[in-house]
Design a protein that fits this description.
Elements: H1 6-13, H2 16-22, H3 28-49, H4 62-80, H5 94-119, H6 126-147, H7 149-164, H8 179-188, H9 196-232, H10 238-254, H11 257-275, H12 279-293, H13 302-311, H14 315-344, H15 357-364, H16 368-379, H17 385-402, H18 404-410, H19 413-444, H20 446-458, H21 462-477, H22 482-492, H23 494-499, H24 504-516, H25 526-535, H26 539-549, H27 551-562, H28 572-594, H29 603-617, H30 622-639, H31 647-651
Helix pairs in contact: 3-4, 3-9, 3-19, 4-5, 4-19, 5-6, 6-7, 6-8, 6-19, 7-19, 9-10, 9-13, 9-15, 9-17, 9-18, 9-19, 10-11, 10-12, 10-14, 11-12, 11-25, 12-14, 12-25, 12-26, 13-14, 13-24, 14-27, 14-28, 16-17, 17-18, 19-22, 20-21, 21-22, 21-24, 22-24, 24-27, 25-26, 28-29, 29-30
């Protein structure tokens, strides 16, 4: 493949083309209205994170800020996102303008009137009920436009259950409530729309999305991709390995698997195809690698921040527990890609296309400073994640004052604000919709009831309960975004895992992983579909190959459920022992899946490697695990012993 110029690379890494395809193109006064909304949202977010009003002796309820933040986002969404994929992208229909103005009014209404509303929340008035119905409609329709019908159906199901659950016989029966009372509770309740889910999106996720937008917009994307190419490009299957590394870099900052595919796959998939990978395999590698970025510290996905908020634990603790599982995820993917390259006789990138590591670092080493600041502030200073994001952003801006090329790009800073607002649309509206579900579960008592039912069905058997949880996660993941799937599972299933004795953080991390795997779980696997469209590959074949590549990743959550030492929970000796077993298990299952190490494997040998892997995955006595490791070593040694023919002949 011809070498890609720096200008072309930046163009490919930009999401501008995608935005133009998805969003309306506005002009004149409509464009000015869009710009005001797009710039106002980040400004308000920064003001709230820094708690600026307090410096002037003024304080606000969190719900006042959240109401204004969501109102502005909904107002922006209705003017730039058409109701249907085939709708015109030019001009704003009258109904969307009305919806936008109603969204803006609702945000101002909550911001101005919430102190009076909360002090008399039991008072039901026609105006409050009408406003509640309007806000519920705006959120549900916004959810349909950003996330599709499946999440809308889930939200409507829970709302209808809240109203008619008193008719359900047995343990799931709830107390009867009126329409007006239900609307008021869902609209104004502290555990509903303007609760923890939206707060996490509006404060923490916002801070990291703003940081990522500025980082990528000033050249950080080009640097990270060049770094991945320089480190991995020269080895066999180099473009695939560079793509995996680049996806990890991008994903840990962007937190979006689909955006990750768009940013990295556009470059890596053609290169993988060029050296000999099949299109569907190249697309699957990109999709699985991009999804892994969402579970990779130090940023991870939106749900990781919600774990911290739900459990009231420092975000650094969440990241600490997630380090090894993320490493095992990428180890399995690297192993399978390497084995496939060896099996197919694939080489690395041509030497003239591999950038010099020294040159890459010389040109962009300063982009490592904001990431180092981020890690230092979270793990050493133990500050909250939103503050860490702003500290990293400030360090990047200070670098910009010293570097002319970055300083030039920072002149259009408000463009970063608008891009941040667009990137916030889906996750914020999803969190608003999830707030409705949280409200129903909280006010109806469904969460405790369902947790008890699940525990009884599993018969207090941890393995059965985790399998049920994983299946439920996969089913939800077939049509719901990862954050929405996690939130639902955190409320309905996580309590059952905790009641049966699982560490709360481990339990939430377990369902978080399976929620993230929705991006590569057929039939609705958005990351796989995005990668397949770039590769020109068959969608379902790409999805199935992605599932195959991710099989070890699906097993990793079970490892740290039964062996918390893999999540760095336990004594030093236990951690080292279980990490050793986990690494051998991942290597064994990768060999079994690819059917190749030094030469092709028979079905019997592949089954033996799979059995070894299972023995190391399951919580068996250490003696059995050491026997499995010994068997693994024997099989690998035999692989390198020529049988009946000289080594050269065997290799041929």
């Amino acid at each position: 493949m011809a070498e890609i110029s720096a200008e072309k690379r930046e163009e490919l890494l930009s999401e501008e083309k995608e935005d133009k395809q998805r969003f309306r193109v506005l002009n004149g006064s409509a464009r000015q209205y869009q710009k005001i909304l797009g710039i106002s949202i980040p400004i308000i977010g920064i003001v709230f994170i820094l708690n600026v009003p307090l410096y002037f002796g003024v304080s606000f309820f969190n719900q006042q800020f959240l109401g204004l933040f969501l109102g502005l986002l909904l107002a922006l969404m209705y003017i730039i996102l058409p109701p249907f994929p085939k709708s015109t992208r030019k001009g704003i229909p009258w109904y969307d303008l009305v919806f936008s103005l109603l969204s803006l009014f609702s945000g101002l209404y909550i911001f101005i009137c919430y102190p009076d509303l909360i002090s008399s929340i039991g008072l039901i008035t026609p105006f409050r009920v009408i406003m509640g119905i309007i806000v519920l409609f705006l959120i549900i329709e916004g959810t349909r436009r950003t996330s599709g019908w499946i999440l809308v159906a889930v939200v409507l199901f829970f709302i209808l259950y809240f109203k008619f659950g008193y008719l359900v016989p047995g343990i799931l029966e709830i107390q009867k409530t009126s329409w007006s009372r239900m609307v008021i509770q869902l609209f104004l309740g502290a555990d509903s729309i303007y609760g923890v889910a939206l707060r996490t999106a509006a404060i923490i996720v916002f801070g990291f999305i703003l940081f990522a937008q500025v980082m990528f917009g000033t050249g950080g994307a080009k640097f990270l991709f060049g770094l991945a190419e320089a480190v991995m490009g020269r080895y066999r299957g180099g473009p695939a390995k560079a793509g995996i590394l680049a996806s990890a870099f991008f994903g840990m900052l962007s937190g979006s698997a689909v955006a990750n595919v768009a940013a990295t796959g556009t470059l890596t998939i053609p290169m993988m195809k060029e050296i000999g990978y099949k299109p569907y395999f190249a697309a699957a590698v990109s999709a699985v690698a991009s999804t892994g970025g969402v579970i990779t510290p130090p940023i991870m996905g939106a749900a990781a921040f919600i774990i911290s908020e739900f459990l009231g634990v420092p975000y650094a603790e969440v990241l600490f527990v997630a380090i090894v599982p993320a490493a095992l995820y990428y180890l399995s993917l690297f192993m399978q890609v390497d084995l496939r390259a060896s099996k197919d006789g694939l080489k690395g990138m041509p030497p003239e296309q591999v950038p010099s590591l020294v040159q890459v670092l010389k040109e962009g080493w300063f982009f490592l400073i904001p990431i180092a600041v981020l890690v230092y502030v979270i793990f050493i200073l133990y500050l909250n994640p939103e503050s860490a994001a702003l500290y990293s952003l400030v360090s990047l801006l200070l670098i910009g004052l010293l570097k002319k090329d970055i300083r030039t790009k920072l002149k259009d800073f408000f463009t970063f604000f608008e891009n941040t607002s667009r990137s916030m649309l889906e996750v914020s509206i999803i969190c608003g919709a999830a707030g409705l579900v949280i409200g129903v579960i909280t006010y109806s008592g469904l969460g405790l009831t369902l947790s008890r039912v699940l525990t009884e069905l599993a018969g207090n058997n941890l393995l059965l309960l985790t399998i049920m949880t994983a299946v439920a996660s996969i089913i939800l993941g077939m049509g719901m975004p990862a954050t929405a799937a996690y939130l639902l599972l955190a409320l309905l299933v996580a309590p059952a895992l905790i009641d049966i004795g699982v560490n709360p953080l481990i339990a939430h991390l377990f369902i978080f992983y399976f929620g993230c795997f929705s991006f590569i779980t057929p039939p609705v696997c958005l990351a796989a579909y995005a990668a397949a469209s770039i590769a020109g590959a068959d969608l379902m074949r790409t999805a199935i190959q992605g599932m195959k590549l991710a099989i070890p990743a699906f097993i990793v959550p079970f490892i740290f459920i039964f062996n918390p030492a893999v999540a760095l929970q336990g004594t030093a000796l236990e951690i080292l022992r279980e990490l050793f077993f986990a690494v051998i298990a991942v290597l064994a299952i990768s060999i079994a899946l690819e059917g190749f190490l030094k030469r092709g494997k028979s079905i019997v040998v592949r089954i033996l490697f799979a059995i070894i892997s299972v023995c190391l995955f399951l919580p068996l006595p250490p003696g059995i695990s050491f026997v499995a490791v010994f068997a693994f070593v024997v099989l690998v040694v035999i692989e390198y012993i020529p049988i009946g023919k000289p080594m050269e002949t065997v290799e041929k």
